[in-house]
Amino acid sequence: MARPKIALIGAGQIGGTLAHLAAMKELGDVVLFDIAEGVPEGKALDIAESGPSEGFDARLKGTQDYADIAGADVCIVTAGVARKPGMSRDDLLGINLKVMKSVGEGIAANAPDAFVICITNPLDAMVWALQKFSGLPPHMVCGMAGVLDSARFRHFLSVEFDVSMKDVTAFVLGGHGDTMVPSVRYSTVGGIPLPDLVDMGWTTQDKLDAIVQRTRDGGAEIVGLLKTGSAFYAPATSAIEMAEAFLKDQKRLLPCAAWCDGELGVKGMYVGVPTVIGAGGVEKIVNIKLTKDEQEMFDKSVDAVKGLVEACKGIDDSLA
Ligand code: APR
To answer: What is its EC number (predicted)?
Structure first.
């Protein structure tokens, strides 16, 4: 059987890391696409030259030609620009919307059967636009945010409790922004829900609240440290986890920005929810029950995403 083909649209910081991880894990052959001439070719060659030492079997190619992604099984999209000082939210939306249009058309023409994972920000609005522009079935297009936000939450919790990260499960729901909802009730250490651990005196409510807030600010914390860029190791690893779940039909239960059709009270839009990812793409949305307070926080987050989607419609008439 031929190896799977993984197309990475955008060969910047995250794209390069995705290529490295995909090759090291032998998930398939990798095509790096970018408009910046030489960058995808250089990164593909550099990573390929690490193959003999690492011992992986994967071919890597860099390109500026969408024809090279033909037949890709997975497309991971990081193409776009980051917000720079002086740029308004609408400026960023306008620029990245245009990028999503060209990427969506490129995927539709060359890899219409692919499972598409969008990482470009503002995430929930961009994945919505990418699905519209590509016309791919909604369950085959999703956004990576929840796995990353949950991984940040899990990391902070494992440090607080001084236990292995493997034993910490956590969910972050809602939009990928300030209003995201780290779900305390559904997060556990070794199966014990966080509120019980507070009752047991293993941590305090104040410490837990601070961890929740640090999770919400997780992206900004990295930007503040790096100064000239945003996070790329953990975002790439998170998207690879989703791609692997699809390619190996793992049926992983992972939070991601998925097309909701009534689940958790959301209709006709993309937002972060628990999903099952397998060979069928987003095979299921887990319609968890929220408490009144949780639902209020979640609805607020959904409203923030709605605002971005409306702004997209205002910028590009074809989306209205
Ligand atoms: N088609 C293909 N590639 C494009 C296009 C386009 N129309 N426009 C820009 N690019 C490429 C750039 O040339 C650059 O190499 O997208 C790449 C983006 O890479 P970086 O700027 O390094 O950004 P990165 O850190 O990888 O983040 C990518 O993910 O988390 C989000 O906010 C982040 O939106 C950003 C995205």
So the answer is: 1.1.1.37
Per the annotation, does 240 bind a ligand? Answer: no
Three-state DSSP at 98 gives helix
**Is ipTM strictly over 0.85?**
yes
Q: 223 CB under 6 A from ligand 1?
A: no
What tens-digit pLDDT sequence spans the chain (320 residues)? 899 999 999 999 999 999 999 999 999 999 999 999 999 999 999 999 999 999 999 999 999 999 999 999 999 999 999 877 777 777 889 999 999 999 999 999 999 999 999 999 999 999 999 999 999 999 999 999 999 999 999 999 999 999 999 999 998 999 998 889 999 999 999 999 999 999 999 999 999 999 999 999 999 999 899 988 899 999 999 999 999 999 999 999 999 999 999 999 999 999 999 999 999 999 999 999 999 999 999 999 999 999 999 999 999 999 98
- Judge if the beta carbon of residue 219 lies within 6 A of ligand 1: no
Say whether 316 sits in a helix, a strand or coil: coil
Phi, psi of 204 (to 5 degrees): -115, 160
Is 10 assigned to a binding site? yes
In short, whether 149's Cβ falls inside 6 Å of ligand 1 is no
Cα-Cα end-to-end distance for the chain: 43
Count how many residues are written for the chain.
Answer: 320
